[in-house]
Each structure stands twice: as C-alpha cells, then as structure tokens.
Design goal:
Structural class: mainly alpha
Helix content: over 70%
Strand content: 5-15%
Distance between the termini: 55 Å
Order of helices and strands: HEEH
Largest sheet: 2 strands, antiparallel
Radius of gyration: 29 Å
Strand order of the largest sheet: 1-2
Length: 110
C-alpha cells in the first residue's frame, strides 16, 4: 500500500513540473511559481527564462527520484517474499531432522 502512495506522490511531483516545462518549451513563455505568477518570455528575458526552466527540471528530477524510491521498495518487498519460501523450507527440514533425533534419543531410553 505504501508503494502505491510513493508512486502517486512521485507521479504528482513529476507531472506538476513536466507539463508546464513541456508547454513552455513549445510556446517560448513560462510562468513563475509564485502566488501572483508573472509571464516570462524567452525572447525578452532569456536568462530568467532558462533559470526558471532549470528550476522546473529540478522538480522533475525530484519526482523521478521519489518514483525510484518507490520502485526500490517494491523490488525489496518482492525479493523478501521470494526469499521467504526457501527460508521456510530450510526451517521445516531442520525441524523434521530435529524431531527424528529426539525420537531416536527417546527410543534409546525406553
């Protein structure tokens, strides 16, 4: 369940910056992230436009990192479940072997 929450949070963080970034790459205009956002045109303020685009790509990277953490959690969970079966088999085998030894010792004293 937590893996789904991590994936959804990562997807939200990714798309929150990816969609405006793609739109601004296509149109040449972007908006600041402030409450009273201002329009910044690539042709008028290229340095500010590129700085805002870099901030958007940083947000995209954070979203991708969160999705990567979710994927790591998922793979770790699957790996632990796969290891659970052989560990259970080893435990059952050692328990059966110990029971046979206990029966042999008990038969000696009868």
């Amino acid at each position: 369940m937590i893996v789904w929450a991590i994936f959804l949070a990562g997807l939200y963080l990714l798309l929150r910056d990816l969609i405006p970034w793609l739109k601004s790459q296509q149109t040449g205009e972007t908006r600041t992230k402030a409450y009273n956002s201002k329009k910044v045109l690539r042709s008028e303020e290229p340095e500010r436009f590129s700085a805002l685009q870099k901030n958007r790509t940083d947000g995209i990277v954070v979203g991708l990192m969160v999705i990567g953490v979710g994927l790591a959690f998922l793979l770790f969970g699957i790996f632990s479940l796969v290891l659970l079966l052989p560990i259970g088999a080893v435990m059952a085998y050692t328990r059966n072997r110990a029971q046979k030894r206990m029966k042999a010792v008990a038969n000696e004293f009868n």
